[in-house]
Amino acid sequence: MIKASSTIISLAFILGLLSTELPGGRIWPIILGILGAVLFSQLGISPQHKLQSKTRKKLQARHLPPLALPHPYIWLIASLVSLLAGFYLQFRLPQPQNNDISKFIPQDSNAIQAQLVIVRGTIESTPRLTRSQRGQFWLNADQFSEVINNQQPPGISKAVTGKLYVTVPILQSTGLYPGQKVAITGFLYRPKPSKNLNEFNFRRYLWYQGSFSGLNGRLVNILEKERPWGLWKVRQSIVKSHVQFLGIPQGPLVSAMLLGSKAIDLPYDIRDLFIKAGLAHLIAASAFHTSLLLDLVLGLTRKASRRTRLIVGSLILIIFLGLTGFNPSTFRAVLMGLAAFLGIGIKQKIKQLSLFMIVAMILLLINPLWIWDLEFQFSFLTISSLIITVPSINQRLQWLPRVIASLISVPLAATIWTLPIQLSVFGTVPIYSILSNVLSTPLVAIISFGGMLSAIFAFIFPPFGSAVAVVLNCLTSWLIYLVELVGNLPENYLSVGKITIWQLLIVYTLILMVWWLRWWGKHLWFAGLLVLISVTIPIGHSKNDLFRITVLAAEEEPIMVIQDQGNVTVFNSGNCGKGKLTIAPFLQQQGINKIDWAISSNFQYSDTNAWLEIMEKLPIKVFFDYSPTPETALISKAIHQELQKHKGIYQPLSLGQTVSTDSYIAQLVNKEIPILQMKIRGQLWLFIGNRNQSELEKLIKLEKLPRPQVLWHAGQSLKKLLETLKPNLAITVNANLRNEDSLAISKMKTQVFFTEQDGAVQWTADGKLEAFIQNTESRTSIF
């Protein structure tokens, strides 16, 4: 019999892994274990793990359920397990082997190497299309050789190991499949970490996958012509049958809802629609699908015997896992779902929860790094909601048919359990998420089951499978229309800012108290009010008192964000891609929902910028444009039109014209170099470009430049500018200075930040300066 002690020990192992990121680290689970031992020893737990009558009365007086609680020594064992979990995580951190292919990349490499190489190995995954329209797949490398030149054969092959992230031209990836032996000609590179807050960390992503390098491939040579049977063929036939009669995008969408978007090349415009509407989980073979399948099976087989329900539910989950291709995320979700379903079949809460926790612990023993994987976290929390919260919601929806109640309770419970994690990672709340999930779940359920039937028929007889898929055409079109409608609603996402780890713990503690304590379960409004207070008050207080200047790492153009007690200014946007991947994520993480002032000076003299990408996410009230030219007239017109949608103001500026707000005064004093100066709270900031080097040299010699407290410059004149202007702080991009210049700068009193290696730089009113990469490394215990 599985007892509560197994739940506590399993939970202790999970908390021990999580504690490696807490301030104070591993001491907290130990303290909790000791407190638990003291508390339950006072309650009078018997050696036989049975509750004494006095204890039962004490628990009932506190509205606690009369569970068979473990002996106090279990809490001490749990604290020891949590301590060992932290050491186990450190022991299992991925490390490249001595002959890993990443060892053949020079240590000082910061970019793709000019050295052409040939890497031989076995394809591990089905090729997928990236946003840059290149084919991507994983390769297990086994041989490596350098290409001296095109006239000579490659050098001596070396035996290597390692997992490579490979991208190749789309035509080169066509027809490739897992298990195939190939030789790829291209350039090896080291992945770069993120340089800005909330920016995608490519290095960490590869590290999670056990990979330490990438290959920018140019040519793929197939070494094996045979095409052995594999699950990739099954998936290929499923997708082909869906596309044949449903067309695009309906066909790929049905396949993605069945197999997950990781296994299907779903068009990115459709992916973005689902993400924008807060429905990204619908196109991922995720725990949501697992929970939905389980709850529907329970509803449809409620009159059957336990054995029948268990067999039917397990069979459906196994079929689902096979169709998705046994990818890790689906495997985790299905295994946890099977554990939850087995517990439900046994009809004992303590067994159900304990079994689920044990399976979660086993998965983390297999790979403890999954504890930081968002897919694992969402899977764990979604299945937890199925066990803990869905039954109570179904109880309150007894006036509805069982199936309809399940279609409402599953997305509602999943949202309650996963929203705190979303707040801690992204700092955003999808306003219409619960409504859109409830409205879309019936369609999703029918389409998923219809897609599964179509897939089975397609495998047996493809034309019949395609004919079945035709029935799904209308439903899929309605779903796309619903997603578009929700995604285009005003203010569909609210940025509240990232919550702290302590706020996260408070929210989940209240959720568990509502489930476990009878009084809290009867006073949901009070628990909800406490959650709202614990999240909003600290964030609101921080916004109203905050003054911060952030210079983002963005290549040759200065991009700066000024936050002054709720007022936000964005200075420059960089080239296309920076708005979507760098600026908007940073602003959303800070809880910013609008930009009060935007200033465009176009340091790079480019006819492309990222302002339209920013305005897709956040409205701008006033837009000041220092860079209107005949070449940029088209983009300026588009910006003007987008501003009018949100009643924003477009203000073109001429050279020397000032922009004055309560936070700063800005003025473009030179358009050719260019030079822009800003006075922020009494300090002069000077931004100097590098388009006209000769003119800049003249100004330096004549000493006609103002002396700032803070200097930004990305050119080769940094040393001369520092010697002449002597600022307190300097920010530049490229750290590749000449040795003599680097040595001379290091001896100066000016503090210099290189965004290429330090990342974004933040300055606060109290004079504190932080570089993003250094600050992140100092706070992170395992990465």
Automatic annotation (TrEMBL):
Transmembrane segments: 29-46, 67-89, 279-301, 308-324, 330-346, 353-370, 376-393, 400-419, 439-461, 468-487, 499-517, 524-541
Pfam families to which the protein is assigned, alphabetical: Competence, DUF4131
Record keyword Transcription present: no
Record-linked InterPro entries: ComEC_N (IPR004477), Competence_DNA_uptake (IPR052159), DUF4131 (IPR025405)
Subcellular location: Cell membrane
Domain ComEC/Rec2-related protein: 258-519
Keyword DNA-binding: no
Topology within the bilayer: Multi-pass membrane protein
All residue ranges annotated as the DUF4131 domain in the record: 29-218
Keywords: Cell membrane, Membrane, Transmembrane, Transmembrane helix
One annotated Gene Ontology cellular component of this protein: plasma membrane
Stored NCBIfam families: ComEC_N-term
Name of the featured protein: Competence protein
Species this protein is from: Richelia intracellularis HH01
